[in-house]
Structure formats: C-alpha cells, structure tokens
Amino acid sequence: MKAVNPKITSFFTSKGNLGVKRPCEDEDSDSENSKNNQPQVPICNDVISTDISLFVNRRLSDEEKLLVLKNVWKPQKNYDFPLLELNKGRSLKFQYAWLDKYSWLAYSKALNGAFCKYCVVFAGNTGGVGNQPLGNLVISPFQQYKNAHRTLGIHQAREYHIASVTDSEHFIRIKENNQPTIVEKIDSNRRAKIIENRKRLIPIIECVLLCGREEIPLRGHSDYGRIIVDDDHDGSREGNFRAILKYRAKGDQFLKNILEGPVNSAKCFSILADETTDISTKEQLSLTVRYIDDDAILHEDFLQFYVIESLTGSDLASSILNALSSCGIDCDFLYGQGYDGASNMSGKYNGVQTVIRQKYPKALYLHCAAHSLNLAVSTSCNIKSIRNCLGVVEKLYVFFNTPKRQNVLISEIEKSDTEFRVKTLKRLCVTRWVEKYDSLNDFYELFPVVVKALDTICSEWSDTTDASILKKCILDSEFLIALSVTKLLFSFGLPLCK
C-alpha cells in the first residue's frame, strides 16, 4: 500500500480535531447546540498526547482504541474548567461530577468540550435518526451545558451508543486476555483455503480482463457446462472467454485440474420476475427460475403467470414467495433476485428485493445490466433538442402508419434512384433507449424520400396541415444536428447493450 503523505494526514487530523459544523445527533435535545455546533478554537497550545480530541473522526489502530477506552486523559478533580463564550450568559461550566456519573464521558482539554469515548471508537460517522450523520459527543465536542443531564441521558439511550458500549466491552476483554479476534481466528483456520480459492480465481479474472482490454465479447453460443481442456471440437461455439480459458489451462496444470475437477452440487437458484398486464388488463407476475443442474448446464425455465392484486413491494414479495411455494420450490435455496429498477421492486427500504432478503438474507439482488444502461442513457437525454428530435421521429412514424400515406412513401422509394435497405419507418422502442438506434438509423436512411413524400402530400392533398408542420420540423437545422448526434451516440450503446 502506498504510504500516506504526512502533510495530508496532519491536514485532515487538524480539520477533524478542530471540528467542522455537522448536524446534531439529538434533534429533540440539541436545538440550541445546533446553533453553536462548531467547537470553539482551543485556548491551550499544549495538546496532551492522550487527549480524546486527537482520536476523533479517525480510523484507529487497536492500540489507539485501547488507549481511548482505558487511558484517555482525564482532568484532576480540582481542574478549573473554562467558561466558554456560549455559556457566559448563564455562567455554566463543565462539571467534574459528570465524568463520575457517566463513565463513558471524556473531556478534551484541547477543544474545551466532552466526547463519548465509546462512540468515538466504534460508532463511526453515521447512526442517528434515519442514519443521519452523527455530531455532538461523537464528531464534535459537547459544549452546551444547559440541560446537560437531559442531553447526556438521551445520548446514553441511543442504539448506536448501546452498541458501541457492547463492542467496547468485547474489545477490551479480547485484548486484555490476549485472545485473537474473530477475523484473526478465521484467517488462521482458513488461510490455506483462502489462498487456494484466490489461486483459483486469479487466472479466471485475468482472462476476463484480457477480453475487456481487447474489446472481445465474453459469451458464446453455449457459454455454460463442463470444460474439457484438450477437447477442441467445435470450440468456437463456446465463446471467446471459455476458449481463452481452455488455451491457458493447457500450460497451467493447476487451472486444468480446477476446470476438469468435480462439479460442486449446490441446490441454489435465482428468481427472475416482472409485472405485465394481459389483454383483460389483469396485473400478473411472470416468474422464471435460473439454475445449474448436476451436469453444469445452465437452465432458465419459465414457471407461471401469477395474478396479483397489489403492486406494493411487500405484496409483490409475498406473491413471488407464494408462487414459488405453489410450484414446490424450497425458498431456503433462493440465492439471487433479478428485477427491473422500479422502486417497488428494487427499493432498499420497502422494495421486493429488501422484503425477500429480510426472510432469505442470501438472496442477493442484481439489477439487469442492459436495463441499467438504458436507464443511464434515458437520464442523460434531457436536452430539449434531443427530446424534440425523438418526438418528431415518432410522430412521423405515426403519420405514415396508415395505408394511404404509407403508399405515398413506398411510391417515393420506388421512384428514387437510390437502393434503400429499408422500406418503412420503424417505431421508437419505448423501454429500451439504446434500441432506438434502429429507428433513427432507418429514418436517417429514408430521410430524402420522407421529405419528398411530405411534399407530395402537401401539393396534392386537401388536408395538409400535419404534413406541412412535420416537413418544417425535419428541415430545421437544430433537428438535423440533433438527429445526427443522437444516431452516433446510440450506435455506441447498442453493441454494449447486446
């Protein structure tokens, strides 16, 4: 790991020690504190090496944690606590008795305020109501002494404080008895297994990186099943990634043993679900399971359509689990979830994936990669001229989507000296943004004959209002530039999506 520049460390340490204004942790008790949340500048220059302020808002080593919990600086009983400017109106000073009553409280001589030493070590930066950033007693010093017992009592009852106290007691017990931590025990007992697993993964990851650097697509016609290294029969149909992996294994006996070794038998599956509406406008869930059989063959099998009455996350989750149970599938082996990005499906609080993970924690949620790309492109296309361009192309499709107008367009295509690849306009895909490329590309190719077809309609038909408006729109320079730019950009996204 690259060494950290000491100047950077000292800069951020001093920033953290002096404090930056942050939200108060106790909304109901610190309304006055919030006005003066930023600590006052220290009045002492001789900062004690065990002052609590030196350990605030930092990643601490085990030695530093133990120092804070056991040997942090504590003033003498006759210590003269300063009268801070914000408390002069009531002549309130910090009271030594508070340190005796609240064993977790530590006073900072450098910042003239108090911190909770347990929370400084284990609470982190967030944990308040709604996981808000912590402030008073954790990141910034406690200096507002009006209603001090009420403020300190509220902090003492906070969940993150209680958890920090438990963690501190456990940490001290381990360190004082020279016991290895849980992580150290796991590393010690499984170190050989970890090293072996890493050796298994490294050549596979390197093959993936090679394909990425050289822009080689990974998947092939049958990108699953057992890999026999010396069997080159019809290898091209397996895909580039598997072919490269087999080629590398011919000179790597360890990798060859892994690829041709026994297949792990794991009864795990993933659920793929999406909402759809049938012809009678009934909402239904389409359910599909994805799994690998004992021969390492990948399967993706449709189960059923399941009628749903509600589209809330909890109701949809119940419908999915009930549908799986009705098919005789044991959800204890549910290890994956695949849905779209709608909030009722992907929401991290009340979405389907969250509700299911509360019951089956191993069921990880993965958002469709192609859908994510489409959402990114959709979000980025907020430029007015681009939106207008796509709208005009869609209106032209609708305009020519009648037999009479379609005949005019076909007639102009047949009269043209150019050989066109397409003979009709294509509708813009509503959900897959990058697939709009085909529609734009077809319109771009047919542009000259579209203009002539509109000219014909304007000159020969009685009702020509729509044709005149559309013709004016597509001959506008802003439209032409937007069409060319959008077509080019979508051409980059289409192969990536596929």
UniProtKB/TrEMBL annotation:
It holds the Pfam family DUF4371. The lineage of its organism: Eukaryota, Metazoa, Ecdysozoa, Arthropoda, Hexapoda. Transmembrane segments: none annotated. PANTHER family: OS05G0311600 PROTEIN (PTHR45749:SF37), PTHR45749. It comes from the Eukaryota. It comes from Macrosiphum euphorbiae (potato aphid). Residues 21-40 are annotated as: Disordered. This is DUF4371 domain-containing protein. Residues 267-351 form the DUF4371 domain. Signal peptide: none annotated.
